[in-house]
Amino acid sequence: MNTPYRNRIPDRSGLRGRNRVPDGSGSRGRNRVPDGSDPSAASAPRGPFAHWRQDLPASLVVFLVAVPLCVGVAVASGVPAERGLITGIVGGLVVGLLPGSSLQVSGPAAGLTVLVYDAVQQFGLASLGPLVLTAGVLQVTMGLLRMGRWFRAISLSVVHGMLAGIGLILILGQLYAVSGRSAPGTGPAKVAGLPALLGDWLTGRAAMTAVLMTAATVALLMCWKKLPGPVRAVPAPLAAVALAAGATALFDLDVPRVDVDGLLGAVAVPTADGFGAVASAAGLGTVLAFAVIASAESLFSAAAVDQMHDGRRTDYDRELTSQGVGNALCGLLGALPMTAVIVRSAANVQAGARTRTSRVLHGVWLLLFAALLPAVLGLIPLAVLGGVLIHAGGKLIPLRQGAALWRAHRGEVVVLTATAGAIVVTNLFEGVLLGVALAVAKSAWQTSRLHIDLTDDGDGRPLQVRLSGNATFLRLPRLLDTLESLPTDRAVDLDWSELRHLDHACRSALLTWADQHTARGSTDVRLKPPLVMSA
């Protein structure tokens, strides 16, 4: 009997039954079961519509979640709303059919909003397609080179810090946008301008109707989970957009709305002039940032989705290649870059999806909506999309994870906070690089811990010096200070047998100190075990 995934209990051990494969590499052992199916269903009829009773309603849920997010991310990125829908359609119809992760859903993501906006402002809208196309080709190359697994070796503190920094910038930008004010160009300027923005709210100089609509949207999204079950069956972003659009039409509210030009009119095939941005150093940096951040977010999302269901595990290299193909196609169409999005993916799994058919169908519904009902987009107030994005940005800030880290690993909180702060102060790419550098420095510092225990039994007995931990060049000053402070008229027993690691610099320093100590005081230094210099 098949058990819906939403009723499964995640197992953090990575083993969920005798037929499970503990490795998330996507290997296909003899005990693997059909895509998204239960082991007991191995003999059931296979095919793209074998589980249509579960996949069809799940695809509708994902479609309803995706519409406001696709439009909102596009508007916040400074591009036409239809280009966000194009990315969602490609994520469903193209990436949905490709191998990798069977249940996660791809589309435009809030995590790339800031980077896309900066790219459009710096290089122009015509250059967005070539930048995304080049990033997609880079992703395909990394996937073919089997670099997908390397993205799993990134510090979680850096990832959380990256998301927190993106969330903060997203929130700051939307606060100015919904108030009818132009946002300052830098993160520090946005923060410095908040008191003046608050003054506009209190004195009514801001667009108060839009501000109140945004505040109501955020409040609704925060309280949605506490509403009765039948109400929660409607996706919260969709409910917020529908209510705001209805109120705007009913009361004839004077608020800006989404500007609609039509799906075909939004397609922008790259031109030779657009590729000029790719050839510059700044353009190459943007391409690298697109590729790395989109890949990391997609693969982290895949790992999270794997914990939510008992189907086939993600093949990270194939997923990276599939994401690259999707981004290359989005670039050819002039659309937004895509990633696998955890919000839509979680909605897909929780709605009972069993195979990749659900995510492909969600792309079909997006295409039909954009082609047949484009005028519906013109009813959506920009203020409600701002509220959806502010709420999404707030969810990117890991307050709960940060509190737990502070109790157990305060150094990780430092890396997280520094990464987020650097992203706000500088930019996304430089902030992430700083976070990675801090994480590496922190790991090097922690793995080079050295304990020095000194025992003096008196009566002319040798001094007992015991070393444990890791003796690396980072701890060499402290080690030499301790050894050189020993009296030269006493013999020394230096026990280093409990060291887990002894690098060349410390080995050389210990031998040199032992020779000098013996020469100065005519006393022996016994090493346990003896240190032998390698040739």
Q: Give the overall form.
A: elongated
Q: What's the SSE pattern?
A: HHEHHHHHHHHHHHEHHHHHHEEHEHE
Strand content: 5-15%
Binned, the helix content reads: 55-70%
Spatial extent as radius of gyration = 29 Å
Helical stretch tally: 21
> What is the rounded distance between the termini?
66 Å
- Can you give the mean pLDDT? 82
Structural class assignment: alpha/beta
**Could you name the ranges where pLDDT drops below 50 across 5 or more consecutive residues?**
1-44
Q: Major sheet: size, sense and barrel closure?
A: 4 strands, mixed
Number of strands: 6
Structural write-up:
This protein is of the alpha/beta class and 535 residues long. It has 21 helices and six strands. It has helices at residues 52-76, 81-93, 113-123, 128-144, 156-178, 187-192, 194-203, 208-223, 229-232, 236-251, 263-266, 281-306, 316-332, 342-350, 357-372, 382-396, 399-408, 410-425, 428-447, 476-484, 504-521, and strands at residues 105-107, 339-341, 450-455, 463-471, 492-502, 525-528. It has a four-stranded mixed beta sheet, with helices on one face. It has a two-stranded antiparallel sheet with strand order 1-2. Helix 2 (81-93) packs across helix 13, helix 12 runs parallel beside helix 14 (342-350) and helix 18 (410-425) runs antiparallel to helix 19. The longest helix has 26 residues, at 281-306. The protein is elongated. The termini are far apart.
Provide key terms for this protein.
two-stranded antiparallel ribbon; 21 helices; four-stranded mixed sheet; 535 residues; 7% strand; alpha/beta
